[in-house]
User: Fold this.
Amino acid sequence: MPAALGLSTYRWNNNIKSVLLLLAFPLLLLTLVGVVFYAFGWASADPSSHLVPPQAFQQFNLQPALDTARPEDFALSAIYTYWPLVTGIAAIWVLVGYFFNSAMLRAATGAKPVTRTEAPKLYNMLENLCIARGMKVPAFYIIDSDALNAFASGVDEKSYAITVTRGLLQRLDDKEMEAVLAHELSHIINRDCRLLIITIVFVGMISFLAQMLWRSMRFAAYGRNRSRNGKGGGAALFLLIAAIAALVGYVLALVLRFAISRKREYLADAGSVELTKNPEALIGALRKISGHSEIPNVPPEVQQLFIENKPSGLDLGGIFATHPPLEDRIRVLQQLGGLPAEGKSFIPNS
Assistant:
C-alpha cells in the first residue's frame, strides 16, 4: 500500500483511461481485423510467389491498397474497406453499453431490484453513507445466491447501482454490511465502476468480432476449396485462421484488463474505512467472504466488478488476477486501523 493514496490523481487517471479506451476501441477492432486478414492472406498465398490470389480479394470485395497482392496488402485493403463498418459497429456498441449496461449486468448475474420497503435497513445504511459524501443514493439490487459477494456498477448518476448477494445479507452483521456498502460506494466515487463497465463492454465486443471473423473465414475457406476441387477441404486453413482470431481477441482482452489497476480494491477498502471509521468491520466481512465468493455462471468479465474474484485456472503467480489476495487487503486494513496483525499482539514479550 503506497504511503500516499493520491485519490484525486487516481480518479483523474480513471477518467483519462475511460476516454482513451473509448478512442482506442475502434483501433483495437481494426487491429483484430488486420491481423486476421494478414493471416488469411499469408495462408492463401501462392507458395512460390507469396502473392495472394485475386480470388481471395474478390471473396471479400477488396481492392488492393498497395497493388502488391502480398499478405500485408491484403490486410491493409481489409482495414481500408471495412473501417467505416468497424467504426460504426464500435459506436453503436458503445451506445448500447452506455444505455443498457445495467440491464446487461442484471441479465448476466440474475440480479433483481429491491425497494426501500423490502429492505429498509439496507437502504438506511446506504442513504446515511451517501449523505456523508453528499451524493445521490444509487439503485439497489440483490442476487439470489448463497455466495458472499457484492459489486458496484454504472457509468453516471442515472445508472449507478450496488448489488449484493442474499448470502452476504444473511451472513454479515450490520457493521460488516455497512462496511461492504461503503467499499462499493467508494468504487463509484473513485470512478472504478465506470472504467470497468467500459472495459467489460469492449471485451465483449472484441470477443463477438473474433467469433464473427472466425465464421467468415470458415465460410470463405470452405467456398474457395470447393470451387477449386469440388471437395469440402480447407479444414486446416480454417483451424489456423480461427486460432489466430481467437488468440488476437484474447490478447486484446488482456490489454484491456491490464488497463485496470488492482490498486482499486485497496483504495476502495481505504474509502470504506474513511466512511465508517471501522476497519475491523470490513476485515470481518472479508474473512467471511473468503472461500465463499464464487457465483456460478457469471461471465469472467463481470466477475471483475465483484468485491472478491478468486482467480481460476492458470494464474501465473497473480499476473492475470483482477484482485489482490484477501490476505494482503486484510493486512493493509490492519495497518490503516492501527490493529495488530493476526497472530501478533501489541503487548511485548517479557
Q: What stands out?
A: The first helix runs from residue 7 to 44.
